[in-house]
Amino acid sequence: MSARSPLSSPPTSPLARVLARLRTTSPYAVDTAVAGLVLFAVSLQWLFPDEGDDPLSWRGWLLGAATAVPLVWRRAAPFATACAVSVATPVQALYHAPPPDLMYGGFVVLYTLAALARPWQRRVMLAGWLVGVAATISHREDAEPFEYAFQLLSIVCAYALGSLARTQRAYTAELEDRARRLERERAADTARATAQERARIARDMHDILAHAVSLMVVQAEAGPVVVRSDPARAEAAFDAIATTGRDAMTQLRRILGVLKQEERESGPWRLPQPGLAALPGLVRRVGESTGLVVELRVRGEARPLPRDTEVAAYRIAQEALTNTVKHAYASCATVGLDWAEDEVTLTVTDDGRGPAAPGGGGHGLIGIRERAAACGGAAITGAGPEGGFQVLVRLPVAAGRRAALG
């Protein structure tokens, strides 16, 4: 005996397979089969004539057939089919040759109306059948009281089953529609997250490359000038170029590593991106590589920040110092961190030539504003209080404090 795999799907019951096959079958084929079954049921009295003393006639059989044949169109035209069966059934009962044992066709059309028809059609037909059956039974001489309850209860049960089928179908359709909406929303969220991640990576790569290339250009320009007069200084410049290039490659690999799904979580390029703790090292590298006097000033008590905010603050300071090296022609720069209760203010000020002409802002300043806005903060760039150029960024710390307290 072969063992069934625990991951295999459970066996499908024969009834489930039959129902699944019926759902894919043509509606007319199913309805024709239903009509044939009802016709067989109303013909039993002719097939077994000795079972009772009821009179039989071909006219009675034709009236019985009139309650079954219209069922072929019960889903294409439910109300018209119900009207036809509703006329044939009481006529057969009053003709009494033979009287119907059960209203098979009536049960089917009431079920169909309750499942498919409009509200007013359902109500009118249910009320008509209840009144019509009660009136028809009252015309019979040998009618028993229990027959009223049995026939009326049968009508209500057929209608209730149809209503249950309609409710189940509406519920299933709602679930399918909700699933489609959730799938579309999930796809849209994935697309937005992908676009935001790509934009973040693009900003990081811009900041890394612009900073590294700027420092390397400064050192490369200074190296040939002092190569004969001060070989030691020239050697230090070339060493700084190599160090800056290696650092840039490391950071680029770290960023690009998030795009490689095959990288293991503990891979060497999955290290966290730099935050405020790396800010003193950034200030020191810029000063040593360019000869720019860079000072870091911190006021207030440091507070925990969300990781994204820390990375944004580091990248903003890096981009601001890159702009100072490339464009300001400054001799000194100051990086300030001013901690308050609900926000931290980051300022980068230099003594260079000040803002460029209006409209001359590049991608770096745009990236600074975008990073600040993404963290719920704001950035202001322009002339410093004592000349030169200043980047002032305010970033919230409340989210970081809640995370730390939680």
Automatic annotation (TrEMBL):
Entry's Gene Ontology molecular function annotations: kinase activity
Recorded superkingdom: Bacteria
Entries under InterPro entries matching the protein: DUF7134, HATPase_C_sf, HATPase_dom, Sensor_HK_TwoCompSys, Sig_transdc_His_kin_sub3_dim/P
Heme is among the record's keywords: no
Domain Histidine kinase/HSP90-like ATPase: 308-399
EC number of this enzyme: 2.7.13.3
Swiss-Prot/TrEMBL keywords: ATP-binding, Coiled coil, Kinase, Nucleotide-binding, Phosphoprotein, Transferase, Two-component regulatory system
SMART domains (alphabetical): HATPase_c
Record field: catalytic activity: ATP + protein L-histidine = ADP + protein N-phospho-L-histidine
Coiled coil regions in record: 165-192
Protein's UniProt keywords contain Ribosomal protein: no
Record-given protein name: histidine kinase
